[in-house]
Amino acid sequence: MAxxxxxxxxxxxxxxxxxxxxxxxxxxxxxxxxGWQMVSWMLIRLPRGSVLLxxxxxxxxxxxxxxxxxxxxxxxxxAVQGYDQLRLMRMESRLGAMINVTLVKELGPVLAATMLxxxxxxxxxxxxxxxxxxxxxxxxxxxxxxxxxxxxxPRFLACVLLIPALxxxxxxxxxxxxWFFSTQVLGINSLxxxxxxxxxxxxxxxxxxxxxxxxxxxSIALVxxxxxxxxxxxxxxxxxxxxxAFVLAFMAILILDFFLGMFVNTLYYxxxxxxxxxx
Amino acid sequence: MDGDRTxxxxxxxxxxxVSRSFEAQPVLRDITLSVQRGETLALIGxxxxxxxxxxxxxxxxxxPTDGEVxxxxxxxxxxxxxxxxxxxxxxxxLFQGAALFDSMNVYENVAFGLRQNSSLRESEVRQIVHERxxxxxxxxxxxxxxxxxxxxxxxKRVGLAxxxxxxxxxxxxxxxxxxxxPIMSDVINELILRTRTxxxxxxxxxxxxxxxxxxxxxxxxxxxPLTRLEPHASQIIFEGTPQEALAAEDxxxxxxxxxxxxxxxQELAAG
Lengths: 279, 271
Description:
The complex is a heterodimer of chains A (279) and B (271).
Chain A: H1 13-44, H2 49-59, H3 64-88, H4 95-133, H5 136-142, H6 147-185, H7 190-200, H8 203-229, H9 234-272
Chain B: E1 13-22, E2 25-35, E3 40-45, H1 51-58, E4 66-71, E5 74-75, H2 81-88, E6 91-94, H3 106-117, H4 122-135, H5 152-164, E7 170-174, H6 182-198, E8 202-206, H7 210-216, E9 219-223, E10 236-240, H8 242-246, H9 251-258, H10 263-270
Parallel strand pairs in B: 3-8, 3-9, 6-7, 7-8
Antiparallel strand pairs in B: 1-2, 1-4, 4-5, 9-10
């Protein structure tokens, strides 16, 4: 009978899937603990104005140009794509309703958040990752500051407070862009455009879009800061953290959009007893 | 802490069989050592032997995977997060790359600890900041500059000023002369000596610069990389004065302190 050392099992696709599942669970748990610590510190001590305001300026004010461009082109693209479809049904006069409902409920919040995940999320992750690899986060702890209270809480608050405002800007500019293209290029009657908008776009639609953007902002901040704090060594680690921050934030936005969409529709039905078709 | 009868005579910092791994990679194994009040301890060893990890464990910036770290005779683990933050203020830390905050200028860097942890008026903070900046041999007008505008030596000195702002009892120096020219290295060595003269601090210096060790250390501890250590051998291969290190019998110690490749060159040739 042959004797010898036990051979190591071959690495099969099942092992790879298993490792990926374990990594996902570890990541989810770690992110949850990170979020819990952040919420705890937010309740214990809010950041000083001298720390919070620069974050708000970077995240909010400096994102306005890119949000304006994003919003304007969303509105115009919706006009381009919606016009032909509605013309087939001789309903092109309702283009305003279609553009603006889609804008305020879905595309405005989602695309504005996606743009900000790229701009703000990646930047936050890269900044915190650089602080990690240059030991600045350790220096904060050595000097009596809690890194989560000092670095994460102000960024989280800035995102949660300002991303809805930026979404409102994107919506507003998108509405103007859609109107401009529809009436000045496609020849839709302006009065009919606004009449149908008034009849079909409700305050609930606008509010549901803004409420969604609060959750999107929270997810961008949480994921970006978590990736930065846990980045690998060197420039490669920082670069990977920035990429992961965007990808994971984008996935979180899509997943949240789905579940929040279901929730707001169900809530609307419960409040106003009007059946909402999901088809 | 100072003058507390319950802590009198106890080491300031103590490791009892401390081990630390990163994922599956062990870095420190069963380290037992103590640091007495007022001494200057140099931690030396080859790159990758765990010197910086040891220092971060001493300051509870990392947790051991095994064993216990003690501050003034009491396990660090027994302290709450708040106690830990408060007591860590008694330590000053000069990081290897100075770790200055990029978004702040020199003044804001040095003032950070004071603003974060005291209720001093801004005029008092300004006075302390300027004193510390002068103490490390820098002109006051450097306060307006950002870290990116400073040379390596200036960054180290600003980092030292920042670590001294809260008048710590223990100062950690993580490779204080790495990356500096010989003259600036000696400036840093002189600053370490001056700090010890001006205030009653305990100093722990991680370095592989033997000139620094000879100049500033009272006691030397040498660590050896686990990757080249026999399974049950102690990772601390020397503990004594700098003069005893020069006359050590262990060739691993004498090769290191005299800067000879020794057996390592044979390993490289074999590779």
